């Protein structure tokens, strides 16, 4: 009896063409074994740590010694902690400011980089250089540049006053938004660049025939076609903004006072400075829940979960 063989893939979906002995071809999905390595990796490095965080959030542990079960005591204490409440609002504020600054700039730069302008490739490569640096390296670089004594503000006091941008809440927040935008705008521009290049040229040709100028083409053709890319970018911005940590640790250390103590940094303080790992785990779990809920709301409201290809004919 002839064995069943796998024919070359004949569709663009997830199914494989299976050639039967009689000559017929049927479609069959790949087995679970194909997804097993990724499933195990995700379970070991994501699910298991998350479960441990949930367990740790209802305990009291100083990092050594016995773990004591305390129930919801950590949660009740955090609910009455003014620093914790303020850190949540500050995280939301920094995230909102980051979205407001990064979205329009990355959109415009990404659309421009998708064109055929002269020297576009060279300028784009230079602009994307911050993507090669880690958040820690970027923070150290900007900390030196904005040093109140030896940095740019200290040498231009006619513009920056006393030169200490880290000495006030407004200045420190502005620095965090600036540094975050400088590093991550190239990444989001790359998303928009790829999406803009995928827009069918015939749409612009039709708009031009109808008398639409460049601005009208951007508003009525480009932006609608970038809708799915924009939702993707926004979700990444929101999750990244709520969980940012290295920038605050190196640039402001939560100061002045607690004026830039965002939730992720407060988690670090509770766990690794106060050695209250139970409270730190509770804060971490709260961050996961908040980021997940906001992401799901954005996906549902935007209709991203029902996303379909915007390419002509698909």
Automatic annotation (TrEMBL):
Coiled coil: none annotated. SUPFAM superfamilies: MetI-like. The chain crosses the membrane at residues 39-64, 88-114, 121-145, 165-185, 229-251, 277-299. It is found in: Cell membrane. Its main location: membrane. CDD domains: TM_PBP2 (cd06261). It is a multi-pass membrane protein. Pfam families: BPD_transp_1. Keywords: Cell membrane, Membrane, Transmembrane, Transmembrane helix, Transport. Residues 88-298 form the ABC transmembrane type-1 domain. Belongs to the binding-protein-dependent transport system permease family. PANTHER family: ABC TRANSPORTER PERMEASE PROTEIN (PTHR30193), INNER MEMBRANE ABC TRANSPORTER PERMEASE PROTEIN YCJO (PTHR30193:SF37). This is Sugar ABC transporter permease.
